[in-house]
User: Fold this.
Amino acid sequence: MSAGSTPRRRWLKDGTYPPGTQLPAGRVLAGSYDVSHSTIQRAIATLREQGVLVGRPGRGVFVAESTRR
Assistant:
């Protein structure tokens, strides 16, 4: 998984994580995609920079309601 591009396209196209959905914990995602936790962290950081994900302090990381494409 590249840091952001592949999962972003997959998540947005197939509805795995629709807008407003909280992402699972990083370690759970890492296990689901068979990659390291640090790879997931980099992907999440990239997707946050792109406005695809938003962090909510004390609540987690969510798919943005409106994504910039």
